[in-house]
């Protein structure tokens, strides 16, 4: 599953997806829907609603001890996605230590931090499965008020709560159509910890079928949508539905510590955040729910000043990406070859790290990348780099163009030793220019060109001291790489020995675009490997 690695870190399915083989061997109802391909891979048809229902019921039974029933004509929830939402609510409410109370409007949760959490689940309905209250109550002991507008969903939800003996924690109530937070709480004075809501994503049947709402370049959904009309459609779609919840929250304010909604479209996120900003809501955050090939987004806001606000995942990923170094490893045989060649570039200390560093400095000089050695640990060498122009992009293409240019140069005509007319004397061609005496002969020039072309075809580097790349701008440049004002990016390169290999790390410092550092890293790696592959 493509997005599993981006699941919430506490999601049990993040690093251990469901084992269909094991589940099929244990649950006969699930085994009916398992298919084995010709290659022996066990799969499930996610376009078959019965197969999807069997998987959801099996996972809830196996991993949470919950027994539920879901009608095929109502929404069948996926467990990993709902689990992501529950874990995010844990983050919003301060963790799992104390029970919480919520509303599933699908849910509302009552909070007084020294008392059990109460939640509200469901302006759009808690659903037939009542999955959010069941998971929250089972995992964390949360108290839920679960509201439902649909008769079929209400009956199933109530039955699922009762048969799992959770009626003391979950109260399922039937409410009129279009009931939102104000209607659910108008007769109560309880302060809830949070509300959870999985609103109807679509405004009409055409949107639900993907007409005019799905990018034409995207493949069709890999799973079936079984939701009823009240579960998947609402006037104005999810955008207007959540806006109505926002307007309810402006009146309720501190009756809930956190208001939250899950979104099916990323394009809904920005206008809803703008609406909260316009209304002066003090605390706003959002997140992404990633699972399988599906992504969902969630928005949360609060009128309390003392609530912790989790950072949005995009900011966390950017920070992690910025901190993560680009690395490549120079293996022992290549290191040995570089050590052998190191004296040819003036490197007197031919230790592994010194040799690799010397070659890196040679390549950087050739590329006109400003660099200098900086203090570092005993077992490594460090270079501070400042790139002021992109001289490394399309290096392979440049070599190919140079080779093509060499091939297209005119070649000298072969000299004939006998005349085609025996009676006529051999005369010089008066139209041909006489070569200057100091220039090489055509044959000598062509031989040199052929040698250079062979080097190019073998993937050899253009020589570091090639006259086509003057080095005056790079060699001995008086500018300090650390103080240059106009630059593409700056980075720190660490070269260290690990066992018999040498590892090169590039750490981003600042600049315009980190992709440029990625390109330079690839160029350095390829140049080092080509140099290490040359025979002595």
Automatic annotation (TrEMBL):
Residues 446-458 have a biased composition (Basic and acidic residues). CDD domains: AdoMet_MTases. Residues 401-479 are annotated as: Disordered. RNA N6-methyltransferase that methylates adenosine residues at the N(6) position of a subset of RNAs and is involved in S-adenosyl-L-methionine homeostasis by regulating expression of MAT2A transcripts. Able to N6-methylate a subset of mRNAs and U6 small nuclear RNAs (U6 snRNAs). In contrast to the METTL3-METTL14 heterodimer, only able to methylate a limited number of RNAs: requires both a 5'UACAGAGAA-3' nonamer sequence and a specific RNA structure. One of its GO terms (biological process) is positive regulation of catabolic process. Residues 420-433 have a biased composition (Low complexity). Belongs to the methyltransferase superfamily. METTL16/RlmF family. It is found in: Cytoplasm; Nucleus. S-adenosyl-L-methionine binds at residues 82, 125, 148, 198. GO terms for cellular component: cytoplasm; nucleus. It is an enzyme of class 2 (transferase). Its EC number is 2.1.1.-. GO terms for molecular function: mRNA m(6)A methyltransferase activity; RNA binding; U6 snRNA (adenine-(43)-N(6))-methyltransferase activity. This is U6 small nuclear RNA (adenine-(43)-N(6))-methyltransferase. Keywords: Cytoplasm, Methyltransferase, Nucleus, RNA-binding, S-adenosyl-L-methionine, Transferase. It comes from the Eukaryota. Its main location: cytoplasm. It comes from Cyprinus carpio carpio.
């Amino acid at each position: 599953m493509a997005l599993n690695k981006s699941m919430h870190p506490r999601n049990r399915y993040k690093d251990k997806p469901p084992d269909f083989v094991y589940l099929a061997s244990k649950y006969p109802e699930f085994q009916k829907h398992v298919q084995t391909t010709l290659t022996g891979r066990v799969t499930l048809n996610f376009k078959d609603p019965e197969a999807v229902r069997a998987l959801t019921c099996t996972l809830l039974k196996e991993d949470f001890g919950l027994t539920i029933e879901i009608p095929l004509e109502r929404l069948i929830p996926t467990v990993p996605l709902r689990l992501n939402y529950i874990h995010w609510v844990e983050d919003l409410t301060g963790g799992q230590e104390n029970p919480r109370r919520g509303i599933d409007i699908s849910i509302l949760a009552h909070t007084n931090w020294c008392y059990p959490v109460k939640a509200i689940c469901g302006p759009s309905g808690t659903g037939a499965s009542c999955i959010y209250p069941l998971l929250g109550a089972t995992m964390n002991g949360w108290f839920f008020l679960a509201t439902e507008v649909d008769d079929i969903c209400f009956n199933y939800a109530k039955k699922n709560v009762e048969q799992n003996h959770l009626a003391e924690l979950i109260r399922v109530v039937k409410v009129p159509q279009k009931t939102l937070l104000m209607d659910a709480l108008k007769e109560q004075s309880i302060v809830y910890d949070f509300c959870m809501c999985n609103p109807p994503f679509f405004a009409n049947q055409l949107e639900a079928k993907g007409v005019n709402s799905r990018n034409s370049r995207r493949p069709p959904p890999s799973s079936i949508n079984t939701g009823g009309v009240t579960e998947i459609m609402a006037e104005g779609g999810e955008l207007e539905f959540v806006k109505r919840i926002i307007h309810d929250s402006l009146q309720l304010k501190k009756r809930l510590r956190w208001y939250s909604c899950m979104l099916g479209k990323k394009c809904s996120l920005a206008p809803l955040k703008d609406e909260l900003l316009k209304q002066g809501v003090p605390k706003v955050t959002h997140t992404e729910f990633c699972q399988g090939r599906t992504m969902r987004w969630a928005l949360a806001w609060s009128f309390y000043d003392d609530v912790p606000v989790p950072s949005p995942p995009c900011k966390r990923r950017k920070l992690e990406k910025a901190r993560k170094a680009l690395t490549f490893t120079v293996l022992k045989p290549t290191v040995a070859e570089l050590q052998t060649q190191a004296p040819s570039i003036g490197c007197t200390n031919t230790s592994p790290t010194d040799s690799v560093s010397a070659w890196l400095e040679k390549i950087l000089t050739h590329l006109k990348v400003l660099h200098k050695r900086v203090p570092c640990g005993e077992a490594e060498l460090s270079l501070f780099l400042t790139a002021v122009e992109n001289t490394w992009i399309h290096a392979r293409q440049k070599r190919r163009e140079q080779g093509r240019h060499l091939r297209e140069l005119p070649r000298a005509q072969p000299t004939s030793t006998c005349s085609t007319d025996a009676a006529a004397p051999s005369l010089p061609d008066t139209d041909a220019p006489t070569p200057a005496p100091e220039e090489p002969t055509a044959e000598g020039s062509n031989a040199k060109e052929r040698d250079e072309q062979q080097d190019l075809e073998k993937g050899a580097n253009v020589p570091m001291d090639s006259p086509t790349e003057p080095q005056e701008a790079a060699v001995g440049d008086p500018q300090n790489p650390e103080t240059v004002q106009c630059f593409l990016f700056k980075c720190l390169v660490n070269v260290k020995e690990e066992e018999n290999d040498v590892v090169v790390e590039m750490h981003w410092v600042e600049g315009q675009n980190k992709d440029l550092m990625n390109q330079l890293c690839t160029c350095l790696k390829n140049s080092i490997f080509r140099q290490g592959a040359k025979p002595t």
